[in-house]
Amino acid sequence: MATTGRRSRRTALATAAAVVAVGLTAGLTTGCDAVDKALDCVQTADAIADSVSDLQQAVEAASNDPTQLEESLNSIDKNLDKLGDKTDNADVNKAVDDLGKAVDNVRTSVEKGDATPDISPVTDAAGELTKVCTP
Question: At what angle do helices 67-86 and 120-133 cross, to 10 degrees?
Fold first, then answer.
């Protein structure tokens, strides 16, 4: 009978250890997913910041090469699409939407013939995105 009691305890301990291991693995996986998402957000926000810098330079050089404005706006849109697809964070999504609207407004100004549109709303929105992406 003593052997049966030990086997029961061993089985119970093995089962408990398996449950704990599964719980820890799930916790680590979830934690890694959160870290991966945060890194994706930061990396994309950094790429958007670079695109905004390019946009600023394009506005300054618009008289020399007006196509740079469109290329910079397209680059920001592309990065926003990537970020929007990768996150379900409400703050990040709002910042992405706000930046997208600011880019659309600049694009509309350029299409209407404004060679030096006001890009401060784009800069402000990019700053907000960087803020919400910073862990």
Answer: 30
Rounded distance between C-alpha atoms, residue 1 and residue 4, angstroms: 5
Query: Are the C-beta atoms of 135 and 42 separated by less than 8 Å?
Result: yes
Cα–Cα distances in Å, from 116 out to 55, 71, 87, 104, 128? 11, 15, 33, 15, 23
Residue with tokens 């469109």: 70
Give the tens place of pLDDT for each residue, 15-71: 433 444 343 334 433 446 666 666 777 777 788 888 888 888 888 887 777 788 888
Euclidean distance between CA atoms 80 and 101, whole angstroms: 11
- Could you state, in order of their start, the residue ranges of all structural domains in the chain? 30-133
- pLDDT band per the 50, 70, 90 thresholds, residue 79: confident
Topology annotation, domain 30-133: Four Helix Bundle (Hemerythrin (Met), subunit A) (1.20.120)
